[in-house]
Design a protein that fits this description.
By secondary structure, the protein is of the alpha/beta class. Helices cover 42% and strands 21% of the residues. It has two domains: 2-144, NAD(P)-binding Rossmann-like Domain (Rossmann fold); 147-310, Lactate dehydrogenase/glycoside hydrolase, family 4, C-terminal (L-2-Hydroxyisocaproate Dehydrogenase, Chain A, domain 2), CATH 3.90.110.10. The protein has helices spanning 11-22, 38-53, 94-111, 124-135, 147-162, 206-214, 216-224, 229-243, 289-315; strands at 2-6, 28-32, 60-64, 75-78, 116-119, 142-144, 169-170, 173-175, 181-183, 189-190, 193-194, 248-257, 264-275, 278-282. Helix 1 (11-22) runs parallel beside helix 2 (38-53), helix 3 packs across helix 9 and helix 5 crosses helix 6. The mean pLDDT is 91.
């Protein structure tokens, strides 16, 4: 199994690569970056090899700036782009990152045509759409990190509020990875029991929790400059499920063709079954009326944003 990380010199890219290498599932890990960063990723690969030796993990970790080297990759993690800084919204990154993602998507199609693309670059729903269209891949082979990370953040907050182990929390966030994310509280369960039946639910600050999930990334960025471990482990989680063909349901950004609420021609975070061929199936779900309205609002917002970005990059190719 070979995995390539484009943007391997960035904080998220290199952390994701290390998480994946540590799992001892990948035979070869390729860190790809621009020529200006080649020494940095060579240093990262050496550092990772030293760390993995202490765990008796043997993975070949290569560093390159030659896109041809991604050939034969099973998964390509696309993490290249302008990083989000403090006071900067995900949307502020849209146009410059769309050009970067579009370029790399075309190169992936050229040099690794059998691969699965996992888009990490923000705003991830728009970038997933760009990668899908520019690569020409089928939609099962292109997905975005999307709401998987948001779902993990909500899971963590619920665990703290109810003082119950995080493994007992079963919840999901769908929609946009941004202001229009939709927590599916109507189907959230703790230990198999719907959360609304717990006594602590009466004093549960739903709006406050949602706001914390929406602003979680910005909060971390304001204190340490960037998010790193959360996205890295979420990326590793997705790739491992694909490579192990585990058939698990995660919320990733994927292209919709009417599978949920008759929404078409937009990439949004939705529950999907993941396996060795990527997205095997989008899972149709039932939502409360409020959740349904919020999901449709997210679809409209992301579709509008995608159209604007496409128009701008076509004017300034």
């Amino acid at each position: 199994m070979k995995v390539t990380v484009i943007g391997g010199s960035g904080r998220v890219g290199k952390a994701a690569a290390f998480c994946l290498a540590e799992e001892d599932l990948v035979d070869e890990m390729l860190l790809l970056s621009r020529k200006e960063s080649i020494n940095k990723i060579k240093g990262e690969s050496l550092d990772m090899h030293d760390a993995l030796a202490s765990k008796d993990v043997q993975v070949t970790i290569n560093a390159s700036s030659d896109l041809k080297d991604m050939s034969d990759s099973k998964v390509v993690v696309l993490a290249a782009g302008i990083p989000r800084e403090d006071k900067m919204s995900r949307q502020d990154l849209a146009v410059p990152n769309a050009k970067i993602v579009g370029h790399y998507a075309r190169q992936i199609a050229k040099y690794a045509p059998e691969s699965i693309i996992l888009v990490v670059t923000n705003p991830v729903d728009v970038m997933t759409y760009i990668a899908l269209k520019e690569s020409g891949f089928s939609k099962n082979k292109v997905m975005g990190l999307g709401n998987h990370l948001d779902s993990l953040r909500l899971k963590n907050l619920l665990s703290k509020h109810f003082d119950i182990h995080v493994s007992e929390i079963h919840t999901r966030v769908i929609g946009e990875h941004g202001d229009n994310m939709v927590p599916l509280l109507s189907s959230t369960a703790i230990g198999g029991i719907l959360v609304k039946f717990f006594p602590q639910y009466e004093n549960f600050d739903i709006e406050g929790i949602i706001e914390k999930v929406i602003n979680a990334g910005q909060y971390v960025i304001s204190m340490k400059g960037s998010t790193e471990y959360g996205p890295a482990f979420a990326i590793s989680n997705i790739v491992n499920i694909i490579l192990k063909d585990e058939k698990k349901i995660l919320t990733v950004s994927n292209y919709l063709e009417g599978e949920i609420e008759d929404v078409h021609d937009v990439c949004l975070g939705v529950p999907v079954k993941l396996g060795i061929n990527g997205v095997e199936k989008i899972i149709p779900i039932k939502m409360s009326e409020n959740e349904k309205a919020a999901f449709l609002k997210a679809a409209d917002a992301v579709k509008k944003s995608t159209a604007e970005v496409l128009q701008l990059i076509n004017k300034d190719p």
